[in-house]
Design a protein that fits this description.
By secondary structure, the protein is α/β, with parallel strands linked by helices. It has helices spanning about 20-30, 45-50, 65-75, 80-85, 95-105, 120-130, 140-145, 145-150, 165-180, 195-205, 220-230, 250-260, 270-285, 290-300, 325-344; strands at about 1-5, 40, 50-55, 85-90, 110-115, 130-135, 155, 185-190, 210-215, 260-270, 310-315. The chain has two domains: about 1-65 and about 160-335, Rossmann fold, CATH 3.40.50; about 65-155, Rossmann fold. The strands form two sheets. A seven-stranded mixed β-sheet has the order 1-10-9-8-11-3-2, with helices on both faces. It has a four-stranded parallel β-sheet with strand order 6-5-4-7. Helix 5 (about 95-105) links the parallel strand 4 and strand 5. The protein is globular, with a radius of gyration of 19 Å.
């Protein structure tokens, strides 16, 4: 489904939202630490969708995902006193690695709270960067422990509800404008909404006619539900396999940015995300996360909005995905399909 746009909430003017200048300053600040990832035209997807289609290969970013941009942008603005204590974060994967890597690079202590269900490849990578990893029962439980760390002087690097983090993620948008100046459409994944807000700020301020389409998977669709209800909706649990989209709720800030910049949010099924993941692996030779491949699934649903004059950029936001997980998901989906056939 595509969730339609809703009139902006009254809280808009009271929120601290990033500006284009903030994103541009972030780009300067980040240049020694992050990669300008390539944006490559895909002939296969162009033929498939009847448009000019490009892949923003953010899975080739250091630590394997876009999250490094926001983590570094926040960490680089800390005072000497804040640096002396260290940083704390909550994450189910990519933000954890980003904060851990940024902290190691800048010589900071880092504590990362992660839910028990976090895949081992994320846990191992985060700990490998030198962060102290603390497991909690759920993502919500991890968030609830943050105030205690802040009271001790730790600086909280929120995964998406921070203007500096959002501005850092927005540098992806500046790179898209540089590499594909004729861009007409951008399709991106939404977890908590930081990437969407940052890219929206960067692109729509420069080129207001560019359309930005958000994507979530069913069971990790907190933004779509919030847009539909015109208020924050907290998911009781994340049931999608796209765990890195698993924000239990968006925030007033990211919801406001979504209302301001997005055409809407397309919610796809896990099966579609996995099929798109396999397609990208077979045809493009890249292994993404379901949280990234879902953009390809959404593009299929949205293709009636595009034509031969469209220049559509799909952001492949991350690639931290274990091959054994792909095998497990594929087997599970095939078994589920077989059960339905037998039941019929």
């Amino acid at each position: 489904m595509i969730t339609p746009m809703i009139t902006q909430i009254d809280a808009y003017h009271s929120l601290s939202l990033p500006t284009l200048n903030d994103v541009q300053q972030a780009a300067t600040r980040l240049s020694p630490y992050v990669r300008h990832t390539p944006t490559l035209r895909s002939q296969t997807l162009s033929d498939k969708l009847g448009a000019n289609v490009y892949l923003k290969m953010e899975l080739f970013q250091k630590t394997g995902a876009f999250k490094l941009r926001g983590a570094f942008n926040k960490a680089l603005t800390l005072s000497a006193k804040e640096k002396a204590r260290g940083v704390v974060a909550v994450s189910g994967g990519n933000h954890a690695q980003a904060v851990a890597y940024a902290a190691k690079t800048l010589g900071l202590q880092a504590v990362i709270l992660m839910p028990d269900a976090t895949p081992h490849n994320y846990l191992d990578a985060t700990a490998g960067y030198g962060a102290k990893v603390i497991l909690t029962a759920t993502m919500s439980a991890a968030f609830k422990r943050i105030p205690a760390y802040e009271a001790e002087g730790w600086v909280y690097i929120h995964p998406y509800d921070d203007p500096l983090v959002i501005a850092g993620q927005g540098t992806v948008g500046l790179e898209i404008l540089e590499d594909v100046p004729q861009v007409t459409d951008v399709i991106l994944s939404i977890g908590g909404g930081g990437l969407a807000g940052g890219v929206g700020t960067a692109i729509k301020t420069n080129q207001p006619k560019v359309r930005i389409w958000g994507v979530e998977t069913d069971g990790a669709d907190s933004m779509a539900r919030a847009l539909s209800a015109n208020r924050i909706i907290e998911l009781p649990q994340i049931t999608s396999i796209a765990k890195t989209l698993g924000a239990p709720a968006v925030t007033e800030r990211t919801l406001t940015l979504a209302k301001k910049y997005l055409e809407g949010v397309t919610v796809v099924q896990d099966r579609e995300a996995v099929e798109a993941l396999k397609f990208l692996l077979e045809r493009m030779k890249v292994l993404t996360e379901p949280a990234a491949s879902c953009t390809v699934a959404a593009a299929e649903r949205l293709k009636h909005h595009f034509d031969s004059d469209s220049h559509v950029v799909l952001i492949l936001c991350g690639g931290n995905f274990a091959v054994d997980a792909l095998v497990q998901y594929d087997f599970a989906l095939r078994s589920s399909a077989l059960d339905r056939v037998q039941a019929a």
